[in-house]
Amino acid sequence: MKHIDLGGPWSFRCLDSGVFPGETLAGTVPGSLYADLLKLGRIPDPFWRENEREAARLSDFDWEYSRSFWCERTVLSHERIELVFEGLDTIAEISCNGHPIAKTSDMHRIFVFDIADAVHEGENVLTVVFRSPTRYMLAEYARAPLVGGAGGQFRGFNYLRKSHSMSGWDWGPVLPDLGIWRPAFIRAWSGARIDDVYIIQDHRPGACGGTDVSVSIRVRIEFARTAAGCCQSDALKAGISCRLTKPDGTGIETASEFLSGSSETVATLEVAHAALWWPNNLGAQPLYSLSVSLSTDVDPAGNSDPAALAARAVLDERLFRIGLRTMTVAAVDDEWGQSFALTVNGCSFFAMGADYVPEDSILTRNSRRRTERLIKSAVLANHNCIRVWGGANYPDDSFYDLCDEYGLVIWHDHMMACGVYELTDEFRENIVSEITDNVQRIRHHASLGLWCGNNEQEEAWCSWGWTEQFSPRLKADYIKLYEEILPALMKKLDPATFFWLSSPSSGGSFDKPNAEGRGDMHNWTIWHGLKPFAAYRSCYSRFMSEFGIESFPSMRTIETFTEPDDRNIFSPVMENHQKCESGNAKILYYISETYRYPKDFPSLVYASQLVQAEGLRYGVEHWRRNRNGNRCMGAVYWQLNDCWPVASWASIDWYGRWKALQYASKRFFAPVLASAREEGARVDLHVSNETASAVEGILIWRLCDDSRSIHGAAILETGKRSVAVPAFSDMQVFALDFTAILSGVDASRNAYLMYEFIPVQSGACTQSRGSVLFVKPKHFNFRRHAVTVEAQEKADRFEVTVRAAAYARFIELETTGFDAIFSDNFFDLGAGDSLVVSVRKDELYADSPAQGNPLSGITLKQFARALSVRSVAESW
Question: Are 256 and 273 in contact, with CB atoms under 8 Å apart?
Fold first, then answer.
């Protein structure tokens, strides 16, 4: 097999005379129009102020990309010569040496074209014309106006198999890019090639309590031609060889199978005492290496004689890394309805994570390095799950590799979201082909938890007025696509992975898709409905797959897209970087409900992050307190990351900077969590244990009032209790009633409760702590400037000792001139409390965590000078 890489330099030009007239420009593949023009300095940064609109208009034109490639006679001698595009965005017309090859209209598909009749020896010219996506969408919308989206979308986005969020979303800009966005190459081959590999695992009890696994590798072969009078497999005398290597590189298992008159075969490898793959915080993530090769003269006995191996001709080979595990969703009828619990190796666990959106609106600027920093940030914050949202694109292979390595279980939507779709023959063909391409590419990954048909479409038909607005035929198209075509297709492609029809859903057929008792749920009554945080506590979802509150990114991020005069949340620039309708007003509303009016713009930004973190804490802690009996088994918040610098629901902004929510998630997603449910003067204290072993420890609490003591806090009441919390459970430890103590207004405005769970065994789990106020923070009598910090240097890190002379809420550590990710931040301390916070020297960044350029050589004096601290008391 011969490959000709078509990546690297290409030339491109606009086919409309009014844009860069007469110019042919230098581009790159993989790449895109916006990426190329930015690299050339021909357009301003679309993320700066309101430049988004100037960049977006370039998608109104047609563009041509071309390059030449050299074809040797040895390439032409092969039986098959194919042109492969792993991603074309989106409406493309391909030609080779002036010969039309194909037209495409789906950026999610892998396209393979026979070009044997179009290429010749020597220099060849390949041309790809991209037609305007915006003109196409507007024309289709004018023909039949179908709606969808979350606000701000370019009309007609649902007519084109293009990442929907490129047409705008309520957190992303309208930047409908185009180009050859994934690798392109020519593949020349003869005889046969591996067309598909499907890996099936059969787990059974092994010796000494271990697990034995049969790994069956089903291989489908494509033949270049059919030999006269016999099957091509017999004529080739070919077969499959499989080699499985243990995670430590030892213990190779092999198996071989002849292709006896068939294009498919199955080879089976036996693994005794398998090292099982587990999600983050539940165990390790061992990965086995599997090679599958197609060769001539294969010995079915697995002969490894060097001379015999040297005589073989390897026609094709595929390499995989697999984790040995079982994975499903436990949907069991119970007293509340039906459970919905991700279950790995027979163990149902509480899923904790966030929704993932594209990491950059210009998709091709992303990299494995950047994605790894994002995934690592999720894992550092105790996430064990991530949801790939259906309004974007199927991520690159590196995303799935990283989830395998770090232990993030993937809830994976197919790429359809919030839109009414017309089930034409072309649309159906594209959907079936794109899902086939991507499921076959992704399904072997250990981290794949479930497939989901779409995002919010079933709910939209029931609750967004679609049934009244559109014809019954379109509603029938929904049933046909999601409840007939897709389930049958997924059963064929990946029967081992759980398939869910929609999100949210109770199981389909428009039967109360966002109900509490079954399936998954999206809760937007807090934020869009402006309900208070405490409203989360009246919701008992089986699996909460979307919920969220917006905040502004850090001041350092805001400074990257604004001028000083823009820094007012209702300025045109700040509103352009807020895509949710009335979003900034909603942020201000939640601030006003919780805190006093901030004293300046930086304090307002800070306060916005506090209400986001506080609000989601209410929800997650409530659902974790109700995990017994698998009642509530997942909290996946909206959203993990941003695609550009913007006010949004993200816990990590576009530059990789952790907001208060990301630090809060590290605490409320901790495997062992102490939490409080307060109502008036009553407080219930719980310990939730999401580990596979019982946890023993001491839960301590103290009720304090700083106003009653000049030095430190007056402790009004205290208590402690030893507990042993069973694995995968929640336990209520205390039911406290302070009604008598807090009877006066002044008492409730000065009193606070500190609580902490201390594990008996060091290293078994980290301490979990929190605090409770009995009034809204805006009514509490904080003492200003009660926090001091002291920095020390260790070999690989700096340590900051934070001390509080009085109760301090949401203490933030910040550095000036560089970025840092601290071991903890935005935390509470009571009077007399201290906490040592560390920051690794390799997590100090000269630019931003997303760019990841480390800051080297910083001294303790420089670090201490750059360090600052604030808390709620200083925000007004």
Answer: no
Helix (H, G, I), strand (E, B) or coil at 444: coil
The Cα–Cα gap between 219 and 237 comes to: 16
Q: Determine the angle formed by the axes of helices 601-625 and 583-594, rounding to 10 degrees.
A: 80
**Are 140 and 221 part of one and the same domain?**
no
Where b means 16+ CB within 10 Å and e means fewer, 335-354 reads ebbbbbbbbbbebbbbbbbb
pLDDT digits 0-9 by tens, 320-363: 999 999 999 999 999 999 999 999 999 999 999 999 999 999 99
- Which of these ranges, 92-101, 124-133, 345-354, 849-858, has the smallest mean pLDDT? 849-858
Query: In terms of domains, do 511 and 594 share one?
Result: yes
User: Distance (Å, rounded) from C-alpha 666 to C-alpha 170?
Assistant: 26
Instruction: Based on the fold, state whether residues 376 and 310 are members of the same structural domain.
Output: no
Strands 498-500 and 521-523, sheet pairing = unpaired
d(CA 245, CA 219): 19
Residues 354 and 220 in one domain: no
Please give the Cα distance from 96 to 77 (Å, whole number): 18
Q: Rounded to a whole number, what is the distance in angstroms from the first to the last CA of the chain?
A: 69
Domain span including residue 390: 330-359+372-618
Domain check: are 195 and 180 in the same one?
Answer: no
CA-CA distance, 331 to 368, in Å (whole number)?
35
Q: Is 152 exposed, middle or buried (0-12, 13-18, 19+ CB in 10 A)?
A: middle
Cα→Cα distances 152→135, 238, 277, 668, Å: 17, 56, 42, 33
What torsion do the CA atoms of 151, 154, 158, 163 make, to the nearest 10 degrees?
-90
Q: State the pairing for strand pair 827-829/808-815.
A: antiparallel
| Torsion angle of C-alpha atoms 741, 747, 749, 751, degrees rounded to 10 | -50
Among 618, 647, 663, the domain boundary falls at: 618
3-class DSSP state for residue 158?
helix
% residues pLDDT > 90 (the chain): 89
Q: How far is CA 215 from the centre of its chain?
A: 29
- Cβ-proximal residues to 267 (8 Å cutoff; 6+ apart), any chain: 216, 217, 219, 240, 241, 242, 255, 256, 257
Rounded to 10 degrees, the C-alpha dihedral 584/587/591/592 comes to 60
pLDDT at residue number 229: 44
**In the block, residue with structure tokens 């070919």:** 238
CA distance 322 to 324: 6
Whether the pLDDT of residue 152 is over 80: the answer is no
Across residues 275-299, what is the average pLDDT? 92
Same domain, yes or no, for 343 and 209? no
pLDDT score at 425: 95
Q: What is the mean pLDDT of the chain?
A: 95
Find the mean pLDDT for residues 302-316.
64
Closest CA to 315 of 297, 293, 300: 293
Helix axes 397-406, 368-380, angle to 10 degrees: 30
Look at the chain and report how many structural domains it folds into: 4
Q: Are strands 448-452 and 409-413 parallel, antiparallel or unpaired?
A: parallel
Report d(CA 430, CA 411) in Å as an integer.
22
Structure-token pair, residue 327: 């994975």
In the block, residue with structure tokens 């400037």: 785
Q: What is the pLDDT of residues 4-55, one digit of tens each?
A: 999 999 999 999 988 999 999 999 999 999 999 999 999 999 999 999 999 9
Is residue 30 reached through a cis peptide bond, with omega within 30 degrees of 0 on the bond before it? yes
* Same domain, yes or no: 181 and 101: yes
Both 232 and 352 in one domain: the answer is no
* One-letter identity of residue 199: I
Residue 425 lies in a domain: yes
What angle, rounded to 10 degrees, do the helices at 425-442 and 486-493 form? 30
More confident residue, 642 or 470: 642
